[in-house]
Amino acid sequence: MEQNLAQTQSVTIIALAIFALVMVCIGVFSSIKTKTIDGFLLGNRSIGPWVSAFAYGTSYFSAVVFVGYAGQHGWNIGIGSMWIGVGNAVLGCLIAWLLLARRTRTMTHTLSAKTMPEFFATRYDSKAMKIFAAVVIFVFLVPYSSAVYNGLGNMFQAIFPNVGVNTWMLVIAVLTAIYLILGGYVATAYTDFVQGIIMIFGVFAMVIALVKTDAVGGFNRFLSNLAAVPDNGDGITGSQLTSIFGGSSFKFLCYNIMLTSFGTWGLPQMVQKYYAIKSVDSIKQATVISTIFSLIIGCGAYFVGSLSRLVLHNELPAGGVDNVIPKTLLTAFGDSNMITTIILALLLILLLSASMSTLSSIVLTSSSAISVDLIPAVKKNAKPERQVITTRVLCLIFVGLSYIFATLKISIIVYVMSFSWGIVSGTFIGPYIWGIYSKKVTRAGAWAGMISGFLTVALPTLIISLQNGTITAAAKLSPQMGVAAMAVSLIAVPVVSSFTKKYDKKFVENVFKVKEEQ
Question: How much is the pTM?
């Protein structure tokens, strides 16, 4: 066993070294394109369709999806959990790109908006809205990135049991900080492209190799083997695990599909990919690529999670559902066979790729919320030429903060992460979507969408937490509250706009005019 582990560790270290070298080289190469703030944040709006599509997809799927969601929902729901992957591809990618990309790219180009808070400020002529949006992004996205560290740290420690989780999280933080600070969005986008290719190969290798194991029984037997899984005391049997629509978890499944799919429509780190694509002509190609990518990654992750009970002989590993995927992969591939050892190393790089792409997107979004949106709004003599330096410094600070939050394992941070998707998207989705589509939206309507979406999550969380003496009970309802927040925000904007003061016609025409491509 020790010999097998040593072989796995050696192959993994070689793979990590090659991966790290490629990432740093991309960062150095990209640094020449980041002399201005527009170049640092958007790559001068010149990112091609393939890179844009992969940047979107890799930011979507992090180690939290593989290690957390796929492990938990695959273990508890079974095959039906794959609908989350389908929903993410169709609703979170295909429909999102079709409805939002062209209009977002056109309007942000016209308004010269580099961030979502800056978009709100120029679209609704409101400095206060810009500040509010920047604060929401900072408070709820930075803690989310700490979960990315934890999800990946557990997998690394499973392979290197003598090295602490904190050490691996520090390695991830340093590597991410290097290429992000050097190359900004350009480095992030091109590393995402490389990482996306790794993720595709990794998922195919993971699925094929896992299904062929004796425990799973091949493609012609895995369903019957899964159907034969007995109740181990948790109330889940084979009939639940093989139910195509999630069995008793159908309602829970629907909420998670809606939250994780429609949630991307209002997340600034996802919407930013539309800002940076080089032309509206590139959008059609990017739409198809990102959808196929998401379908492969999402369905592959949840499919592996649904097979975990077979590999682990229906015994939940120590550490609970967060250790389901790491333990499944180690059990299936941690033998003396060099091929399976290489596959395991590839899967670790897959998880590292997924995590670093998400982490870099979140950090870049959070940093720009302060350097581009908050500081100039409260400091009148802020110099634009210093924004690139300030953003780079803030990227370093936010990577460090995320690492600290992850190592301290502060409970409140973990719960803030649980609400991040719902509360951020719920706050922004209404004024953002109506803002790019309707000329009748008013400033009051936009504020109504923001505040109502925010309070739909914040107020119930506060009330439930006070009633129960802990935030845990509210955290369990975070998917439902997130979906409700998005719906409320989308409804509040047009309703309030219908009876509040309209914008001057000239202002609206300037917002919706199409600026010539440059």
Answer: 0.84
